[in-house]
Amino acid sequence: MSSRGLEGKSALITGASRGIGRAIALRLAEEGCQVAVNYVAEQGRDNAAEAEAVAEQIRALGCQAICAEVDVTDQEAVEDMVEYVIARLGKLDILVNNAGITRDRTLKKLAKQDWDRVIEVNLTGAFHCARAVIEHMRERRYGRIISISSVVALMGNIGQTNYGASKAGLIGFTRSLAREVARRGITVNCIAPGFIDTEMTQAIPRDIREQIVATIPLARMGLPEEVANAAAFLASDAASYITGQVLSVNGGLHM
Ligand code: NAD
Asked: Which of 32, 85, 230, 234 has the fewest CB atoms within 10 Å of its CB?
């Protein structure tokens, strides 16, 4: 992909204060993209400072960056955020639905509230964001919507019925929306990362992590930057004829 291929474009990335979202924000900025860094307040950590640090790094790459604190489960707040981002950046070309959580439990122990919260953040959050940007993209006859699904949507995982359902839901959402808006010049795709080295996977006990790595053909965890490369590709003109697809970035874990 040519360097600075996203010059003049602007993107909103949810959950971009750390991990994969942060890597996508920086990768798009490397391509010249203006970026809105969405983040949410979390107990025991200063996500505002982390988001601002990401924004600073984006500015150092010569791109405009703004931060927006919003919980993606709050539809009204998401609508306000999109309005703010369009006002500040002038337009919105790219939406990356990255915000996501896990609440792992086998089904027999899974509380309804842990089912609900995972669906609300991972799936309904993406609906709120896409719903808020779609009219703007339709009017401009251009858009890229990229949602971060998971290999778990494709192959399942013990203790992740809620997470797997939310991530498989994103794939169904993506395919239907892709058909709805294709004629408006908007593409809608998913990335299904495998086992990526972030705080989400660092929370998994070391012995289980080692067992998972042993099943990965490339014999290692992926890096957030390797997911970000796929996002930069799908956001670029090089991917103009790709829509309704799921791009796996999983080291061969699932084929
Ligand atoms: P992470 O926990 O490091 O980052 C998640 C981000 O989402 C954080 O910035 C967090 O603040 C944000 N977030 C959480 N709830 C939110 C809410 N309600 N509103 C707004 N933001 C919210 O995890 P990560 O590994 O970087 O995961 C990023 C995405 O990639 C998630 O959707 C995750 O499910 C997906 N994913 C991760 C892996 C992996 O192996 N790490 C694999 C497949 C898919």
From this structure: 32
